[in-house]
Amino acid sequence: MMAEPVEDDVSLLGAQEATEHTLDYTTEYLAAAAATKDYRSALRPPPLSTQQSRPERKPMTAGRVSGGSASPYSSTSPVTSPRTPAELSANYNIDASGSTYALQVALRNMKDRYHKLQKKMALIEDDNQRLITGKSELFGEIGKLQENSIKLREKNLQLNHEIHAKHQECCSLKEKFSTLTSENMSLTRQMARTSQDNRRLSKQVNHLNDVNRKLKEKLSLIATQVKALPGGAVLAASASDFTVASKTKMHSTSDELDSFEDLTSKFQATHRDNTLEGSEEVGSHDLRHSESVWSSTPSEEEQTVQTATRRMKDLLACLQDQNHSLLLLSPLIHSLPHSTGLQRGSCETSGEPSIPLTPRDGM
């Protein structure tokens, strides 16, 4: 708040305030004293002859003076120093008028200075108010910045947790990738081995096909030889019927098998017995029929027929084994997966060709 202006009252000044002027107003007081010098000398009456002449006074100066000269406001000044009753009665009016004028000038200067100080004070108070307002605004902004800082810290913590989780996921994915890479390499090696096994089986199948073709050629040759013999047509017809029945049994047996091991075990255990039983039945039937037809033939011809019949039975058994092996191996080779075991066959020739199949574990 602005200070209230001071009234033009000399009584408000204290006893020592008149002597507390700054050096800026000293020149003004000196100029005022010089201007009133002639005025005081004109008003001063001539000295009386009856009175004793007083010592000559020095001209009065206003304000502060340098050195040891007396000030009009000090106790040693000629204006304010105690005088004798004669001096007071003679120069009272002149001294009072000079002091009043000097005080009025000083008061006016002090009032001007006071008004200037009041204006400066008002400006300072306005600046202070603006600073207080700016300070409150800055405090509000600081509070907002603190809130934003807290939110950013929370977001930073959340992002750190997410980064940690993503790092864990990346580590797990890296482990899975390494596992899949190793599995892929192992599968590639297995595929290469399976391809080799497949080529080997293809060669074996081609070899069995060649053997089967040769056996068929031999069988056809034997059939022609048997037909050329007496009663050979009936024997060839019975052999062909037996071959068809054996093939039907082979197909039914292959449908019931579940794996390649079952195939080889059941084929070696049951099919050979069935083939031999059928061959014996055919042989006995053909022999009885041949005996009834050729009962009057000589013994040499009978022995020849029996020898041909036995040879025919052996060839039929071998051919049935080969056909059964080929019929069962062909679909199984294509249906087996790459990771299953490998089945191999070995061809052994002892007198007549025969190709038995033995199960073997996968490589």
From TrEMBL:
Signal peptide: none annotated. The keyword Transcription does not apply. Residues 282-291 have a biased composition (Basic and acidic residues). Residues 292-308, 340-352 have a biased composition (Polar residues). Residues 67-86 have a biased composition (Low complexity). Residues 107-218 form a coiled coil. Residues 38-86, 275-308, 340-363 are annotated as: Disordered. It comes from the Eukaryota. Keywords: Coiled coil. This is Uncharacterized protein. It comes from Chionoecetes opilio. The lineage of its organism: Eukaryota, Metazoa, Ecdysozoa, Arthropoda, Crustacea.
